[in-house]
Amino acid sequence: MKTLNFFVFCFSLAFGFTNAQTFQNTTATTDAIAETRIGGCGYNVQPGVQMSAITIPVTGTISDASKITVNVALTSSWLGDVTLDLISPEGQAITLIRRIGATLVTSCGDSSDFVAANILGFNSANTTLIDAAGAGPTVAIPSGNYAPTYGNAPYPTHNPGTLAAFLQGKQLDGDWRLILYDYGTGEPSTIASWQIIVANGALLKTSNLNATFGSDISLKQNPVEDYLLLDINSKFNSLSLDIYDASGKIVKKENILKNVTDVRVNVQTLPAGMYLLNPTMNGEKIQPIKFIKK
């Protein structure tokens, strides 16, 4: 399976973005196609599975789910075969598509098509379901803004739900994944590409990315020259400090001794510019801190 973690990253996002930012994976997966066990569809098959990932390097908690949009380009000549799950960085899942038109555990569902040129947009504010019956057999589902859409068959169950409940309170940073399942033999399915769009206002204001201090760690001076000087305001068993440059690339990583209160991080070799310090304390990401290296 070919996957690519590719993102379009604007550094303004790391320090409080004002416009929507797009993270995407444009590498198509190989085909997912079921293998027959005792029949051609549903629980009569061993489903084919493919996965595609997007890495988002920006720390923050989603406070407005309607500001997050997932756009998907799929190819399938029998969409009733298709189940599609979105997986958060923490490992929770929501099903976006589940065997549309399928009414029985052995049903093959609807025979309409997904084509890569017709983008399916999923957002918590959307209420329209994918209408395969309205499109007609062998007709492509049009581009549109859709809510998660499920067939009535009791198999497979997967992870039905609403995007609002799923996204609210999730951490934005990390690896987001789409997992494509094909529950029918004969016609393969593919994730052609997909993207996550994060609009202004998506993240908690209390995680203000313009801050130079937080409740756990504060920066003694900014801009900095040779050393990043930090006050640690909380006791900890483990603390790691990741520094990202303006392209979103990690350029330095430091592990700090237990319960140290004053920390000096050598940044002499870093070029002048804007950076983001992402601390992880006791295994949990805490408020990031921006700084300028002179």
Automatic annotation (TrEMBL):
Molecular functions (GO terms): serine-type endopeptidase activity
- Output the GO biological process annotations, alphabetical, semicolon-separated: proteolysis
Q: Which residues form the P/Homo B domain?
A: 18-205
Tell me one Pfam family matched here. Answer: P_proprotein
Name it: Subtilisin-like proprotein convertase family protein
The protein's organism comes out as Frigoriflavimonas asaccharolytica
Source domain of life: Bacteria
Tell me where the signal peptide lies: 1-20
Keyword field: Hydrolase, Protease, Signal
